[in-house]
């Protein structure tokens, strides 16, 4: 292995610290784990990983430069992402207890919904920009290097995301009453809505 790839160790520590700390994805994973269980939250987690992989690779291959030249594109994504996040926050806050959920309320976030959201997620952008600026080797194929580093980053992120979904599942086992479920969903909805501040600041 090229000696430049020794930086994968520090890159792994960086991804762990960023992925384990709270953010829009982790708040929604906690809510999903509690309401739907770990297994039904897997597509949501896979969407985050797939979306971040594509975002990080795109940043390394020139997307960040495109946004610098055309800031209106990024501004538009921020507003769309904020609107979508508020919609998700409302769905979480208004969700009934699991035992009262009908078919219309029983679908967690899909792979594609979670993947698309990463392009409007400010934390994902910060992670991707810092990752590619600080740990991408300069020698060799830019495309291959970007794909390797982005893939490695998501490999590290996978168990970190699972921790949040598992945490939500544990909370779901702990909540026994319908009143407790409604209070939990409202709190998680408010926390999700509060993440809009990060996007629009």
UniProtKB/TrEMBL annotation:
Pfam families: LysE
Localization, UniProt: Cell membrane
Topology in membrane: Multi-pass membrane protein
Domain of life where this protein originates: Bacteria
Cross-referenced InterPro entries: LeuE-type
GO MF annotations in UniProt: amino acid transmembrane transporter activity
Residue stretches spanning the membrane: 43-67, 76-93, 124-148, 181-200
Predominant location: membrane
One Gene Ontology cellular component: plasma membrane
Keywords for this protein: Cell membrane, Membrane, Transmembrane, Transmembrane helix
The keyword Cell wall biogenesis/degradation is assigned to this record: no
Record-level GO BP terms: cysteine export across plasma membrane
PANTHER family listed in its UniProt record: ARGININE EXPORTER PROTEIN ARGO, ARGININE EXPORTER PROTEIN ARGO-RELATED
Name of the protein in question: LysE family translocator
């Amino acid at each position: 292995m090229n000696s430049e790839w020794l930086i994968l160790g520090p890159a792994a520590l960086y991804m762990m610290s960023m992925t384990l700390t709270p953010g829009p994805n982790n708040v929604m994973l906690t809510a999903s784990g509690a309401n739907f269980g770990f297994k039904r939250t897997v597509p949501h987690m896979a969407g985050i990983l797939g979306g971040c992989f594509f975002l990080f690779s795109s940043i390394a291959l020139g997307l960040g430069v495109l946004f610098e030249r055309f800031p209106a594109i990024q501004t538009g994504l921020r507003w769309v992402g904020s609107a979508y996040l508020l919609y998700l926050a409302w769905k979480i806050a208004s969700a009934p207890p699991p035992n009262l959920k009908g078919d219309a309320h029983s679908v967690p976030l899909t792979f594609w919904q979670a993947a698309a959201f990463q392009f409007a997620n400010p934390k994902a952008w910060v992670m991707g920009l810092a990752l590619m600026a600080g740990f991408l080797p300069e020698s060799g194929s830019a495309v291959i290097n970007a794909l390797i580093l982005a893939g490695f980053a998501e490999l590290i992120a996978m168990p970190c995301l699972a921790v949040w979904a598992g945490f939500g599942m544990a909370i779901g086992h702990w909540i026994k009453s319908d009143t407790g479920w409604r209070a939990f969903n409202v709190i998680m909805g408010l926390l999700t809505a509060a993440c809009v501040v990060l996007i629009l600041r």
